[in-house]
Structure formats: structure tokens, C-alpha cells
Amino acid sequence: MKRNPVIPFAMIAVIGILTMFIISWVGIGQNEAIQNEGENGEEQQEEGASSDPEEVFQNSCAACHGSDLSGGNGPSLETIGSKYSAEEIEEIIINGKGAMPPGQAQGEEATLVAEWLAEKQ
Question: Does some domain include residue 44?
Fold first, then answer.
């Protein structure tokens, strides 16, 4: 008597699908816990705005420009202040330029990062 060769593959698929559902269920619970923690958290800033330009840079820009401004996927920003003014840098942060997508930081955060980067000469 021959066994059906599809059965092991079907079993693996069913186990994989069940695993995905279980992981998703656990993730939903963790997401709700994180949201509740944020509502009851100690120190919250209005709409997540930070007053530290280096912190904003690390959160929004360092992935492409490097945590030390040396570049990576994006160009180096070590001497960006000698090429652009703070206003020009802010416009690039808000509107994007070349491969850089727009909206990496908005409002006060964009202004703070632009002024900080303009000092890099």
C-alpha cells in the first residue's frame, strides 16, 4: 500500500498556519498592553515631540545616515552645515530630496534637527 506524498506537506502547511495565528494572537495582546502602558506611563510628551535634536535624529534619520552622521544608505551629514543653511536642511527634512522620502520629521522636530545639522561644518 502506497502513502500519499502530499500528506506531509499538508501537515506542515497546517502547522505553519496555526503557528501564525497563535503568534498574531499573542502580538495583539502585547500591542494592547503597550497602549495601556503608554496611557498610564510616567513621562509623556505632547504627541511624542522631543526637544533633543540628537534623539530625533537617532529615531528618524540614523538608520540611513548613520548614528555618527558618517552615512550609510544615505549620504554623510558630517559637514552638511557647510553646504546647506538650516532653512534648506529643514526643507529637505520635510519635503525629501532624491531618494530621501518626505516627512521624516515635522514641525518643531524638523526645525530642531535642521538647526543642529546646520552647525555641522
Answer: no
